Amino acid sequence: MQTKVWVVDKNVEENKSCSQLVDAASLIRSGEVVAFPTETVYGLGANALSDTAVEKIFKAKGRPSDNPLIVHIGEASQLDDIVSDVPPKAKQLIDAFWPGPLTMFLPKKAGIAARVTAGLSTVGVRMPDHPIALALIKEAGVPIAAPSANRSGRPSPTTREHVQLDLDGRIAGIVDGGSTGVGVESTTIDMTTEPPMIHRPGGITYEQIREVIGDVAIDPAFLGEKEQQPISPGMKYKHYAPEGELWLVEGKQAQEKMQSLLQEAKQKGLTTGVMVPIEQVDAWKDSALVDLIVPCGSIYSLEDVAHDLYTALRRFDESGVQFILAETFPRKGLGMAIMNRLEKAASHRIIST
Ligand code: TXA
Ligand code: MG
After folding, report:
1. What is the pTM of this model?
2. Do residues 223 and 197 make contact, with C-beta atoms less than 8 angstroms apart?
3. Which domains does the chain have, with CATH numbers?
């Protein structure tokens, strides 16, 4: 299959028809699969009302069929077609954070393709905060089911090039809107429990949610209590880890520890890399212990770190680095999502100094 590419200006005006998006939307309506940018990562979209269309997402990604998809809507009124109940706290979160990187699990209505929810009684819904995504959903006239637009087990794509590397020839098209903003996926929260429970930390923080609805639980499965079975099917699957062995190093003696670990790796004849905030690049620049230094954001901005994270992790594989060290970030605010993704990428190898 030839994968079409439409380059669309990120600032596409919502109510002005754009020929590329008309084309992309008509493919979605006809049951094809199209990748598009959201404010978090690129999504792989199909008509959420059609089982055969949704099936193509699973096929293109190589995604296990028991892993449900998030449904993307363009306006809050579409929610009524998808869910049977919007509890008061969900309404509060909608008012506070939509459009934005927050996915809510709500009781599903018939009509949503069974494949979307993988047999669960709830459906994950969000309204993305990206002009292209919103315009595409509006033009398609149907809710769009979309997981991240990567092959299963690969990092979520934050540019059109990432999508192409994984899915070129396997999908009908890609809407290229440049690099995405947040860089890590949406926060997911189950609104059918009391208190509601966060299952994946993401672009909207635990602290922000607490401020609006008060008490919020956190799925113990992502707090390092590994024996817990996560409730979100997707969280149990192996997530992206670089080919090389990634270790996270934290604490006061992190720098010294990194030096000695790199020395050992070099003695074993391994190629080495470090992932550090931009402020620390100079400190490593002249070190004979490091073959590849990958900057990732700034110590002053977790937003920048999240934005750069997946691109940075991909760079080690591109250069075939065998031993990788990364520093950790405070597990607060957006740091909770960053550390969740880093810990998975490192298969929970963390050294505290
Ligand atoms: O930012 C994002 O959320 C991106 C963009 C494209 O919107 N999407 C994304 O989708 O990250 P995906 O499929 O890669 O991750 C969705 C996660 C999976 O872990 C899935 O198992 C879980 O949400 N999930 C979806 N619906 C669910 C439901 N009804 N109950 C429990 N978990 C659900
Ligand atoms: Mg994903």
Report:
1. 0.94
2. no
3. 4-223 (3.90.870.10), 245-352 (3.40.50.11030)
